[in-house]
Design brief:
The protein is mostly beta strands. The protein is 14% helix and 38% strand.
């Protein structure tokens, strides 16, 4: 009797397995292979830092909080709230808190609404702490990068500077990088770094380029937001009364097309 029970169970198992196989063959596609996860949007692909300034100074990638100096505030931004600069005010963020170390490929992008007072200012700066043996020396430009603005008559000219380890390279677009504080509104500023090239964009338009052989981060330990202080002040690039929003850093060089995609996505929200 036990043999018959075992035989019935074996036949039942075979029929059930065969039915499942036939059902799978009728599927389109025939088998349920695991789907590949969707690619992140451009604004998140390779992103290692993101500060939205929604009533806080938190990097959404690491959950680390920037150090506030002075009394910056928040105001209506391009998306939600924005950082509003003030006299003698800025943020610093420790690079050791980034979720990824800085390498030879990098992009920095953010929305910016220029205020012409004062007539020059630091915007986003990563610079080394020393120059040679002089601790706290200013304007050492052999490593890191500096994004800043300077007066050009009634306009404000946005510039960048990048260090390659032994020297620095300038990204000065001339009149192509001029913003009128009275009418400019929100502009998307992007610096991309890759071995052999540094590119500077405003609203996705290439305004300056420099054929850098290398990017150096030697001695760089903090990111400054809203001022050149404390490392880039020798030429008066101090606090900036302008607005900054959606500050992102990537561990890759964005293409011009990707920059436009980010701009369009932000404008659609």
């Amino acid at each position: 009797m036990r043999k018959y029970i075992y035989a019935i169970l074996a036949v039942t198992l075979i029929l059930f397995t065969a039915q499942s196989c036939f059902q799978d063959l009728e599927q389109d596609p025939a088998f349920n292979y695991p789907e590949e996860p969707p690619k992140p949007p451009v604004s998140e692909d390779g992103q290692i830092f993101y500060m939205a300034f929604e009533d806080n100074y938190v990097d959404a990638q690491s959950d680390a909080i920037a150090t506030k100096v002075g009394n910056p505030t928040f105001t209506e931004g391009k998306l939600g709230k924005a950082y509003a600069g003030a006299t003698d005010s800025y943020l610093t963020f420790r690079l050791s808190d980034l979720v990824s170390t800085l390498g030879s490929n990098l992009s920095v992008g953010f929305w910016y609404k220029v205020n012409g007072v004062p007539d020059r200012g630091g915007i986003v700066v990563i610079g080394p702490a020393t120059e040679g043996a002089a601790a706290g020396a200013q304007n050492n430009r052999t490593s890191g990068f500096r994004i800043f603005r300077e007066s050009a008559g009634t306009m404000q000219r946005i510039k960048a500077n990048v260090g390659n380890g032994t020297a620095d390279g300038w990204l000065d677009g001339g009149t192509k990088a001029d913003l009128d504080p009275a009418t400019a509104g929100w502009k998307y500023i992007t610096l991309t770094l890759a071995q052999g090239a540094a590119n500077f964009y405003i609203d996705g338009e290439l305004v300056a380029t420099n054929a850098l052989t290398e990017i150096s981060w030697a001695g760089c330990d903090i990111l400054s937001i809203g001022s050149g202080a404390p490392r880039f002040t020798e030429w008066g690039h101090l606090s900036d009364n302008s607005l900054i929003d959606e500050l992102r850093i990537y561990n890759r060089a964005l293409t011009a097309t990707e920059i436009i995609d980010i701009i369009n996505a932000s404008s659609a929200e």
